[in-house]
Amino acid sequence: MQILIMPKAILQIDGNNFYASCEQMIDPSIKGKALVILSNNDGCIIARSSEARKIGIPMGQPYFKLKNKLTQLNINVRSSNYELYGDISNRLMQLLRKNCEGLEIYSIDEAFGTIKRPKGKSLYKWGKDLRALVYQNIGIPISIGIGETKVLSKISNHLAKQMQNNSGIFDIGIVENKDRYLNKVKVDKVWGIGKRMSIWLRNRGITNALELRNMPSNQIKEKYGVVGLRIQNELKGNLCIPIKDRTSDRKEICVSRSFSYPIDSLEELNQVIIKYVLIASAKLRKYNQLSSAITVFTNTNTHSKNFYKGEATGKIDIPTSDSRIILKKSLELTKKIFKPYRKLKKAGVILQKLQSNQYKQKLLFNEQVIQKEFYQERLNYIIDEINKKNGRDTINWGSSIIEKEWNPLRKKLSSIKTTDIDNIPIIYAN
DNA sequence: TCTGGGGTCCTAGGACCC
DNA sequence: TCTGGGGTCCTAGGACCC
Fold first, then answer.
1. d(CA A221, C1' C1) / Å
2. Of A72, A95, A243, A348, which residue is most buried, by most CB within 10 angstroms?
3. Tens-digit pLDDT string for chain A (430 aa)
4. Residue A183 CA distance to nucleotide C10 C1' (Å)
């Protein structure tokens, strides 16, 4: 991991209503209209266009509860199309990287950047130009918050979204009356303050960012240790959470899904675990990393009475990214967590203890083993390449043939116009 | 009938070592 | 009566994030 040199200004950039904006970008017929995006299995609402937000459609609600209302109000609905969002995200991040000094990609729709601040000057104009450039090239509206630390730039972005005339840009690093702005931000909107902490703070009369910044730090430290202290320090303008280059230093890789219908046999559970292991180990190879521990887990419906959760972890002696070795281990673990007569609703695998493959232990054994390892690596590589070109399931291990029906439902999926050649829009010229 | 998926970081406590 | 002190490593679980 590379920690970048302490900068003068931190930027926090995010795509507005990112999933909804992506959908609206590829389908002009829903531009400017109310739209919601559903999670896997079309379960919950996980994103809304600003129009849907204005109407008062809540976030995180189960779709089945709101289905009628959405139809009545004529609100557009889409299943989540992660291939599309991932592709747009890559383009966005590439453009941002070109225009910032340092960049930390924080999530699919969000990044922290660094830029030198011209002495005592606001970066508002600079941000406005960047925003225009992104809209022109990617077609997605963004917001930019600027401040001295990550926590302050997050707050700045939050405020930017509320200011009608600011075009989604705000620079809290240079404003005259900073405290007045901090006073406006509710304490639970501060980055790093979640449900538990905000209840604790409110019980002590701390309701906004300004009060949090000014409260005695020993109280925070006693209750929330360095984590709490860091947030307070960042509010004071002292950079404690560095900008990181996280392109290759993931700590774990998790692949998990809910099934479209419950599973109750070991064979079926094995099948889905195999599928998830293959996705996870391909990711591992993509990031040039090796894993030396794996966890598999499964559970029944979280809302049911006899909730069951099984979890097992196993070590892999020599760190690897070889699908076959990881598969073998994961199936041993699957046997441990399977319970008959339980209607399993979800399962997943987590690859842990990741390390870079630059430091791979060389085997000390004979030539034959090295040869075998070499061919194994080639085999994995070739499978990845073929799947990258032709789609994830083009070629696969014999054991992973899977019944389609377990795969999550996406009834209202948009087509993938930017990543799939068959879906490229056709324009007819007269 | 129906309730997402993928991460990070920190701490406490146990096992073990000298 | 009295029961060292310091350290590391690992794991489970909490809290938070998008």
1. 38
2. A243
3. 454 444 479 999 999 999 999 999 999 999 999 999 999 889 999 999 999 999 999 999 999 999 999 999 999 999 999 989 999 999 999 999 999 999 999 999 999 999 999 988 999 999 999 999 999 999 999 999 999 999 999 999 999 999 989 999 999 999 999 999 999 999 999 999 999 999 999 999 999 999 999 999 999 998 999 999 999 999 999 999 988 876 657 889 999 999 988 888 999 999 999 999 999 999 999 888 899 899 999 988 888 777 888 888 888 888 899 999 999 999 999 988 888 888 899 999 999 988 887 765 555 555 656 666 677 777 777 777 777 776 666 666 655 554 545 667 788 888 766 666 666 666 666 5
4. 43
Query: Residue A233 — φ and ψ, nearest 5°?
Result: -65, -40
Checking each nucleotide's C1' against the CA of A109, the nearest proves to be C18
Q: What is the CATH number of the domain that holds A18?
A: 3.30.70.270
Pair A136, A260 in one domain: no
Cβ-count burial A331-344 (b if 16+ within 10 Å, e if not): bebbeebbeeebeb
Both tokens assigned to A54: 């204005």
Positive or negative torsion for Cα A133, A134, A137, A141: negative
Residues 282-301 of A with CB under 7 A from strand C: 293
Query: Is A269 found in the same domain as A396?
Result: yes
Size (chain A), residues? 430
Tell me, yes or no, whether A278 and A142 share the same domain.
Answer: no
* CA of residue A225 to C1' of nucleotide C6, angstroms: 23
Q: Which domain holds residue A258?
A: 253-400
Q: Are A5 and A20 in contact (CB under 8 A)?
A: no
